[in-house]
Amino acid sequence: MADKKESDFTVTDRRRFTSEGEVTPDAPPEDAPAETPRIIEPPAEAPQQAQQERVPPPPTAAERQAQSDAFDASKKQLDAQLEGRLGGRRPQDFEMSFERFIASLYMSALMQLGLMHEQGETPQVDLLGGRQTIDTIALLAEKTEGNLSTGEENLMQNCLYELRMAYVEVTNALTRPPAPGGPEKR
After folding, report:
1. What's the total number of domains in the chain?
2. pLDDT for res 183
């Protein structure tokens, strides 16, 4: 059987009344100030400032260069392994460009809105996801204003227009009450 150690921990009952409503014998007198619990509040700093304090410092220039070199070496190694396995296409044909990035977001939004789906699959609607993707493209349009080629700008604006219109159509279709009388029976 294990030896029981004596603890330095003491429990003190500070309740003023017993369960029967009697005053406890060691209760402080009524005129003694009651101990109020201390509430520790976080400093009244802006949430953004608190977030910035938790963000680690960025990597140094040397660390960024080493990471970039390692990434490039890894890409070249993978490209060499894929050479000849891509059906006549080169690995460089799959490199990311701004247009491909926007097209990727566009296709994601269409899938989230249930307007595109894999063959044989039932379309799934994710309105919040679709809205976030549309908002992401709008954010990119705002942040890249004045830095895009005419073609990139046109692509982005056309994607935004089509996706916003599709979003409105899908939300209207989902919130529209059924037609009176429902489908006709034959």
Report:
1. 1
2. 59
